[in-house]
C-alpha cells in the first residue's frame, strides 16, 4: 500500500541541501484507498494570524475529526516500519505509536491536517526543536501532500531557506501523494509561498520525537517569549495535579516575578494540563 522505503535513501537524505531532506513521490500505492482518503478531508475554514505569519490557513489537530483512512495513514507513520526507516535517517530512536504522540489523548500538537486556501501563505520560520511539554527532541518531520492535480503554477511551494533565512535555496511543489521528510533543526528555515489558484493546499504533517530530553536553555519555541518559557519550565517541575489545582496562584507568582507577564500567551503555549 506504501512505497518501499530503502535504507540506501539515507545518503540522498543527508546530502540534500540546504538541510537534510528526502522527497518520495507516489507514496501511497493503493489508488482506491487514496481516492477514499481525499474524499474525507475536513472542510476548510480559513483563518488569519494576528502576527501576520500566515494567511487563509487551517490546522485540524483533533484526531477525533479524522476519517478511518486518515487515521490508518497516521498509524502507519507512527508504526514500526516507517519509524525504523526514519531512525536510520536521523540516527535516533523515535517514539512509536500514535497514542504516544498525542496531547490530552486526542490532539496532534502542531501536526495533523494542514490546509491553505487561495492567496494563503506562511512566512519563513523554524519549527520547535522539542516537545512543548516534555522537551523531547524532535529531529525529523514528515509531510504528505493531498491535493489532487496540484501544479507548480498553483503556488504554495515549500520553500527551503539558507541557515540565516536570507535566501531561498530550494522550492518543492506540493504535488499530490508526494511525501517530504526533512531534518528539524533550529536553522531548518522554511515557508509556504502564496497560493495562486482556487485550490485548497492540503497536507498531513507528522512530527516525530525521541525520549532524549532537550535542556531548557537549548529549547526553541517560535513566537513564545522568554518569560513564558521560564514560567513553563517552572511548572514542568511541579506535579500535574498540583499545578491544575493551584494554577491561579502560580499565575500571580509569575506576574510578580516577570515584568509585563503575558497571561494569554502563557495559556496559549503551556499545554501542561
Regarding CATH, which class of the largest domain? Mainly Beta
How would you sum up the major sheet?
Answer: 9 strands, antiparallel
Q: How much β-strand is present in the residues? A: 15-25%
**How many structural domains does the protein architecture include?**
2
- What is the helix tally? 8
Folded structure, characterized:
Helix content is 26%, strand content 21%. It has helices spanning 9-15, 31-38, 68-77, 80-90, 226-236, 240-245, 247-257, 263-270; strands spanning 21-24, 54-60, 112-125, 140-145, 158-161, 168-172, 179-183, 190-192, 201-208. The longest helix is centred in the N-terminal third of the chain and has 11 residues, at 80-90. The two termini are 38 Å apart.
Any key phrases for this structure?
273 residues, alpha+beta, Jelly Rolls, 2 domains, 9-stranded antiparallel β-sheet, 9 strands, 21% strand
Overview in brief:
The protein has eight helices and nine strands.
What is the fold's blueprint, element by element?
Blueprint: H1 9-15, E1 21-24, H2 31-38, E2 54-60, H3 68-77, H4 80-90, E3 112-125, E4 140-145, E5 158-161, E6 168-172, E7 179-183, E8 190-192, E9 201-208, H5 226-236, H6 240-245, H7 247-257, H8 263-270
